[in-house]
Specification:
The chain is α+β, with helices and mostly antiparallel strands. Helix content is 29%, strand content 26%. The strands form four sheets. Strands 1, 2, 3, 4, 5, 6, 7, 8 and 9 form a nine-stranded antiparallel β-sheet that branches. The longest helix has 14 residues.
Amino acid sequence: MMGFIPSEFARTFRLEDALPDFHYELADFEVDLWANRGQIAQNIRMAGADKEIFPTVAAARQDALQWIFEGLADGYTAIFNKLNLCNADVARLCQEINRAYPDGARTFVTAFLSPSSQHCFGYHYDEVDVFLVQVHGVKSWSVARPSTPFPIEGMYKPPVDQDQCAREYLRTDLSPGDVLYIPRGHIHRGLPGQAGSLHLSAGVHVPTIADGIVQAVRKASLLQEALRLPATAGERDELIRQALETLEANSGLDADLAEKRIYLPRDGLRSMLRVGRLVAEDLLVRVNGVPITYKLMRDLSTLEVSGLLFDYGVRSEQRSKTAFPSGYYRAMQLINEKCEFTPREIAQELGLPIEDAIELGRRLITLGVLEYKAC
């Protein structure tokens, strides 16, 4: 059962199959409206087929609920933004959805209370993945193939053709407890039944490749001075071009091994940026030929290895220290005896698995005591 796991196309499933202990009803929504009536100006808006209306100052202060009821009577849909910040059960729904996505996904919930047989919106698409949880009444949905693949916030949104017969691939009626998953960018439209409808729309901001690149560049900026330079007016584009060329030439940073506060200048920096590319035949040397400092701890199962610690380019008085299994004691001795070596040589002389020898080399590079000879 896929549940909240994202997929290529829209699909339906039962909420009880994915989150059996989740309960939210129309009465709960009424309580949330009452409890948050003082913040209506921040949380609520009314939307119809032709326009959106927002609460006036008087409505926000005195007649908040009356303003909502009058809007519903006129055929508008009440939209409660960020319901997950007001209701603990809805917040838990967001957490459960986030678990099905890569790290960095953010989920928020908007509630839509619609009067009977009224179109709130025509065909449209969202910049987020959407899970529509039907709470009350029945709502009919139509989903069509995207015209703008994988849209993101800030993109130009051309008008959506309201005739989607040729692109439509799913029609479904949602009853209480049903969930409709709609991927980002897929065109859709909902129509409530005669008894009106309440549904929760859980929107998921999905981490993109661009987000991953930005995160990787920010991590690399902790190690690379070119990325920390101010974007001077008139020189910004050229500085960015130079920084990107440097990143491309020195790609391969292993984020899991990188220490946020380590900054290695010159050759050590280039080795650090290439740590993810280390293979069995790469030639390594000790930094500046200095022997590695290590000692066996009292528990006899741990080695404490001292490395170089730089804080944004300034050598710190304190040396960084990392724990290694005591089984690498002989490996440290052998590395200190050699002027240069490869992970394969260490593995062969000590009878280590080659994967362990490579991992040892990578960790010692990030500690600042080994570097590539080629650098």
